[in-house]
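FORM 7B: Structural annotation worksheet

SECTION A. Query
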Amino acid sequence: MSDSPTPPGQPVLEQVLTMLQPLVVWLLRSGVGYTDLAAALKPVFLEAARTELTRIGGKQTDSAVSLLSGLHRKDVRAAGQTARAADVRAQLGKPTAASQVMTRWLASDLPDSLPFAGADPSFETLARAVSKDVHPRSVLLELVRLGVVEEVDSQVRLCRQAFVPNASLDDARRLLAGSVADHIEAGVHNLSATDGKTYLEQSVFADGLSAASARQLEQLANSLWRDVLATMVKAAVPLCEQDEPAGGDQRVRLGMFCLTAPMESEKKDI
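SECTION B. Predicted structure
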């Protein structure tokens, strides 16, 4: 008797579970269990099903959404009582005035210490170039709270060694969520979309390294990112200033990450 054929979606499910592993670790460390996640996934599946039906020209009926999503029709009818996943997604990863100031500062040729007020270059002029709606003093207080700058004798000093996301801060969690969602969306589009467009979604992998060699490559990655950051910001700032007043409605996110870990972690079963 031959083995039963593998369902078409089984390989994809296994690959998604691989992507979920670090997210489940984050959930558990944050006190979120399986039951909470399962309940929260319902509106995500329902909205994705509606979006997919729109893409393929299907009818937006409760039965069609239920069939595609695999959820009961009562869940489809109750979906209007919960926040739409897209509404939540739209709020993730949006850069704050403080993070934009830091990005421009890190990507510029400005010194690590600036006077708070005065003519350009100063922290005040840098902050006002990012937003005229948020007072520079408010931006400074937020950056001081984050521990990435300090103010001494009317000078604002950049603490480059401290510019690492603090996991306890909501902004850091939101930025991670937005970045990972966009990364996965780019990859899923490349694998499944039929519009002929492909997004940049590449990585480099090396193994069999000593700890010292891995650290050397990690330091190289950090250096390369600083160059990418500076180049992208210098290109993006004038384009944003040109397009936003004219009603520009597109966004671009370019990210980069680097992980070092023992090879044994690659051999664990799901």
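SECTION C. Observations
The beta strands are 113-115, 149-152, 155-158. The chain has three domains: 1-91, 97-162, 203-270.

SECTION D. Sign-off
Analyst initials: ____
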